[in-house]
Amino acid sequence: MNQPSFGLDFTVKMEAGWAIKRVSIGAVAWQGIIKSEHIATTGDAVAGVARLLMANQGAARNNIALGLAKIIANYSRLLQSTPTDITLSAPLLHQANAISSAARPRRCWRRDSSRREW
């Protein structure tokens, strides 16, 4: 996440890794890095802290919208998997060279159960 420390307009840039996995074999059905940004102006909030918070929340909202749009775009390909066999990983902040992808924690929701597994 790239955040400004001062200014009139705050632009926050966010990069998050998304993945959809087949539960039974652990294979990745789709994965991607989604980049988003949001600009909060003095018209949104006068206080800098509030503007920064609004810019962060807007960047996260945009990232979720773009991630879901990518999943919908790949939906027909994902249907080749068994529907109860897919896990959607929640968006994770992607930090290049910080953590290997195998070591990153994942929050998962399994479609074959009515409960969330964390």
**Taking Cα atoms only, what radius of gyration do you get, to the nearest Å?**
17 Å
Q: Could you describe the largest sheet, including whether it forms a barrel?
A: 4 strands, antiparallel
What amount of the residues lies in strands?
25-35%
**Proportion of helical residues:** 25-40%
| N- to C-terminal distance | 24 Å
Mean pLDDT: 73
Order of helices and strands: EEHHEE
Number of E-state strands: 4
Helix- and strand-based class? alpha+beta
Q: How many H/I helices?
A: 2
Rough shape?
elongated
> How many distinct folded domains?
1
- Strand line-up across the major sheet: 2-1-3-4
| Low-confidence segments | 92-118
Q: Which keywords apply here?
A:
118 residues, disordered C terminus, four-stranded antiparallel β-sheet, alpha+beta
Short description:
This protein has helices at 48-73, 75-78; strands at residues 10-22, 28-40, 86-93, 108-110. Helix content is 25%, strand content 31%.
Task: Please explain how this structure is put together.
By secondary structure, this protein is α+β, with helices and mostly antiparallel strands. It has one domain. The chain has helices at residues 48-73, 75-78, and strands spanning 10-22, 28-40, 86-93, 108-110. β1 and β2 form a beta hairpin. It is elongated.
What order do the helices and strands come in, and which of them pair?
Layout: E1 10-22, E2 28-40, H1 48-73, H2 75-78, E3 86-93, E4 108-110
Antiparallel strand pairs: 1-2, 1-3, 3-4
